[in-house]
Amino acid sequence: GDGACKHEWGDESIKKYVPKRDHDGANGFSETRGTEPARAGFKTELKQGQFCQRCNAWRGSFGLEPTPDCGRPFMELRDDLTKKEREYVMDELKKEGLI
After folding, report:
1. Region Disordered: which residues (predicted)?
2. pLDDT tier at 6, thresholds 50, 70, 90
């Protein structure tokens, strides 16, 4: 992004997440199919922020970046974490599909 830009924010990006069930369909635990009301209806929509239509700057919540590069500058500025810890956090966020 450009610090001097008068940002024009686009539509908010949303990532949808549906958790996996604890059975493998016909391959096992078929007696539990449909008996998991808490998880069966559990779906999450994560708001991933917005991009500026002029300079491509991003604004949103840390940890919900749509790409690793969006959160990297913040992670690099954190002086309370070692380089190894910053890399670990970024790797974990990637594994969880959050970035």
Report:
1. 16-37
2. very high
Give CA–CA dist 71/93, Å, rounded: 10
Asked if residue 82 lies in contact with residue 47, where contact means CB atoms within 8 angstroms, the answer is no
Cα dihedral 84, 89, 92, 94 sign: negative
What is the C-alpha separation between 66 and 42, in angstroms, rounded? 22
At 75, which helix (H) or strand (E)? helix 68-77
- Asked whether the beta carbons of 83 and 90 are under 8 A apart, the reply is no
How far is residue 13's CA from residue 66's CA, in Å, rounded to a whole number?
8
Q: Which residues of 28-54 are buried (b: 16+ CB within 10 A; e: fewer)?
A: eeeeeeeeeeeeeeeeeebebbbbbee
Question: CA-to-CA distance for 22 and 36, rounded, in angstroms?
Answer: 9
